[in-house]
Structure formats: C-alpha cells, structure tokens
Specification:
Keywords: Acyltransferase, Fatty acid biosynthesis, Fatty acid metabolism, Lipid biosynthesis, Lipid metabolism, Transferase. It is a single chain. With about 425 residues, the protein is an alpha/beta fold. It is built from 13 helices and 14 strands. The chain has 2 domains: about 240 residues, 3-Layer(aba) Sandwich (Peroxisomal Thiolase, Chain A, domain 1); about 150 residues, Peroxisomal Thiolase, Chain A, domain 1, CATH 3.40.47. Strands 5-4-6-7-1-8-14-13-9-10 form a 10-stranded mixed beta sheet, with helices on both faces. It has a two-stranded antiparallel sheet with strand order 2-3. Helix 3 packs across helix 6, helix 7 crosses helix 13 and helix 10 packs across helix 11. The radius of gyration is 20 Å and the shape is globular.
Length: about 425
C-alpha cells in the first residue's frame, strides 16, 4: 500500500488509570507538576521482600465502571482496562451502536495478565484442594480478557486482539491499531496497555533478577532515570487507552483531535532474554524505521517520551540509541521518562506513555524527569530534569522496549488540518 493509499489516523479520546491520577485530567496535571506516585506497598504485606515500594493506583473504585458482581469476576488489570476505555470513549464523545460496531476494534496489550488471580487460586488449590478453585479462574487470568471484556462492555465488534510483548505490549497495541485503520480494516480502535502485576510473586521474581530498586527508605526518589545513582526500576500499575480514528470519520462527526499518529515500527534485538543489545542497535533501528514510516526527518522531532526505566542497562543504551537514530538532532530534542513519576507499568507503560506524548503535543508542554540529581556521564542529553517545560511540541516519539528484545517506537504529530 502506497503512502497516498493509507488512511490518516488521529487521536480523538484518551483515558488513564495511573499512580498519579485516575483520569486523563488528573494524570496530565500530575505529570505537569512532577508529582511522585511511588510509595510503600499497601496492596499486600511486602515486609519479607527486598523491594517494598511500587507505584500503586490509589482510590480506584471499579464499581464506578462495573457492576459489583462483574468486578468481582475480573482481575485488576482487566478492571483498569475497562475503566480507562470507558473514559476514552466518553472523552472522544464516540458512540458505538449497531450501525458502526463492526468497524470499531479493540487492541489492549498486557505483559503479565491476571497474575494475582493465579497466585490466589494456587493458594486455594494447595490449602483447600482442586474442587475449590474458582470456575472463573481461567477467564480472570488470561491476558486477552482485557480486550475481550472491554468489547463486552462497549459493544465494539470489530478486530479484537491482545499484544503480549512484555514492556512493549501497550505500544505494540497502539501501533497495530494504527495499521488496522491505515489499511481500512476499522474506522476506530480502542487501544493501549494495562497491568495489575504489583503482586507478591511478581515482586519476588523481578527482585531475584536484580531488576528492582531497593531504595525502600526513600520511595519518592527511588525511580531516577538517567541518574548515576539509579539502582533499578520501580513497578507500577494502571492503564492508558487511546481512541484512534480514521481522519475523515473523525472530521465527519466534528470530533476534537488531540494529535495525528503518523509512524510505527518494531524491531527485535535477537540478543538476550532481558538485557538490551549494547549500543542500542535494535532500539535505534526502531526509531529510524518509525521516523521513515512517518515521512519525516529527525530535525522536526520536538520530544521523546523515553522508555527510561531507571535500570543501569536501559538508560545508557537508550541514550546511545537516540544518538544513533537522530544524529546531532539528539542534543536538541527534549527527552523525559515519565516512569520517574509513575513507576514502570510493564505492559501498561506504552499506553500511559503514548497518552503523555499526545498530551505534550496538545498542550505544548513536556513533562519532566524527576529525581535526576546526578546525571550519569553516559546519559548526556536533555532529559527535562525536575520541572515540566513549556515549548512548541510538533512531533513526539514514544519508545517502549521489552524483555525478549522487543523494541517499539510510535510517532505522533500536531494535527494542522492539512
């Protein structure tokens, strides 16, 4: 399909359930203010764990979006997805009915799925026997249920899928939705990422891999991307959902347009199960291909929402990758890691970070990287430390990289009507 045959795609609605706010307005206000969402874990007793901090969603009431019986039969990751999707649909003023339902798709990524349900049911199995396991265990646990249940609650009957590419899952979901609309398979797609994996077993696994920060006595400053004193990532939870819509369809219903999505690429390091390839070749290639797909050049890029995990390996590697992909322009682009505020939502991170990139364009404001007090000498770009920055944001990239070597870059630009 030639560029002239591709349909144009715009963002018309967004929703967010995050550690710094449970709707789009609260989330953006939190990002703009540099608000910390990380604290001591309250979802369970973490006293035996090496890491006892996380970015938990606070004050979330699933019954605002779901009937009590339905909410009880869903894992937290699916509750987040339904809630953020309903917010995004309302924000877009998008009506799904019998006339358009088959043209509305859903792709929602997750890295882990219903791990808490699995942990709880395993305990029941061991203590009470197999006959006491819930008949809802499997549909509560499997990763595709965020997309499937969201369809049930919205009536969207178009293409429906779930991306499971570790920490790149949410970005893959947005990118795949973009392709569906470009090629005419859907008029609109509800897309993004969700995760509810702040659980005892998940925490233990990541800690055993020495991936997590152990700055338990100072949780607000534990996630410090690009800082030389970083010691690992901090887990987070929540969901970020976007409504992508074919431009002509959006214009026909006079929809508000936040931004246009113009590029998407994914690559693989083919190197290691958890570590990025030294020098960031795979990540750089994803950025280059996404820029090419967007039909732009590096000199027009204003902002990059970095993967920026606060791990020793990622931050230096991503910095090197940005330099390889953008050349000299890398030193003029504003870059930030919003994970410094929310923690790392794993498969949900690409969703909330795509929302952040779009909001940066819509508001001409770049959110900061908080806790960047002592920059790593290997991280020498402009990471917008401490406070947000008002500036023209015409084109924004959003990077996500996942275990297994998955690399994804999304490209958004200001919609000008041309």
């Amino acid at each position: 399909m030639t560029n002239s045959e591709r349909k144009r795609v715009v963002v018309t609605g967004m929703g967010a359930i995050t550690p710094i706010g449970n709707d789009l307005t609260q989330y953006w206000e939190g990002l703009s203010a540099g608000r910390n969402g990380i604290g001591t874990i309250s979802l369970f007793d973490a006293s035996r764990h090496a890491c006892r901090i996380a970015g938990e969603v606070k004050g979330f009431d699933p019954h605002q979006y779901l009937e009590r019986k339905e909410a009880k039969r869903m894992d937290r990751f699916a509750q987040f997805a339904v809630a953020a999707s309903k917010q995004a649909i309302a924000d877009a003023k998008f009506v799904i009915n019998e006339l358009n339902a088959e043209q509305v798709g859903i792709i929602i990524g997750t890295g882990v799925g219903g791990l808490k349900v699995l942990e709880d049911q395993q305990e029941i199995y061991l203590t009470k026997g197999p006959d006491r396991c819930s008949p809802f265990m499997i549909p509560m646990m499997i990763a595709n249920m965020a997309a499937g249940i969201t369809a049930i609650h919205t009536g969207a009957k178009g293409p429906n899928s779930c991306t499971v590419t570790a920490c790149a899952a949410g970005s893959n979901a947005v990118g795949d939705a973009f392709r569906l609309i470009q090629r005419g398979y859907a008029q609109a797609v509800i897309c993004g990422g969700t995760e509810g994996a702040v659980t005892p077993l998940s925490l233990a696994g990541f800690a055993s891999a020495r991936a997590l920060s152990t700055r338990n006595d100072d949780p607000a400053r534990a996630c410090r991307p690009f800082d030389k004193d970083r010691d690992g990532f901090v887990m987070g939870e929540g969901a970020g959902i976007l409504i992508l819509e074919e431009l002509e369809h959006a214009l026909s219903r006079k929809a508000r347009i936040y931004a246009e999505m113009v590029g998407y690429a994914m690559t693989c390091d083919a190197y290691h199960i958890t570590a990025p390839v030294p020098g960031g070749e795979g990540a750089a290639r994803a950025m280059r291909l996404a820029i090419k797909d967007a039909g732009i050049t590096p000199d027009v890029i204003s902002y990059i929402n970095a993967h920026g995990t606060s791990t020793p390996a990622n931050d230096v590697t991503e910095t090197a990758a940005i330099k390889k992909a953008l050349g000299d322009r890398a030193y003029q682009v504003a870059i930030s890691s919003t994970k410094s505020m929310t923690g790392h939502l794993l498969g949900g991170s690409g969703g909330i970070e795509a929302v952040a990139a779009v909001m940066a364009i819509a508001n001409n404001r770049v959110p900061p990287t908080i806790n960047l007090e002592n920059p790593d000498p290997g991280c020498d770009l402009d990471y917008v430390p401490h406070t947000s920055r008002e500036m023209p944001v015409n084109v924004a990239l959003s990077n996500s990289f996942g275990f297994g070597g998955h690399n994804v870059t999304l490209v958004f630009k200001k919609y000008t009507g041309n």
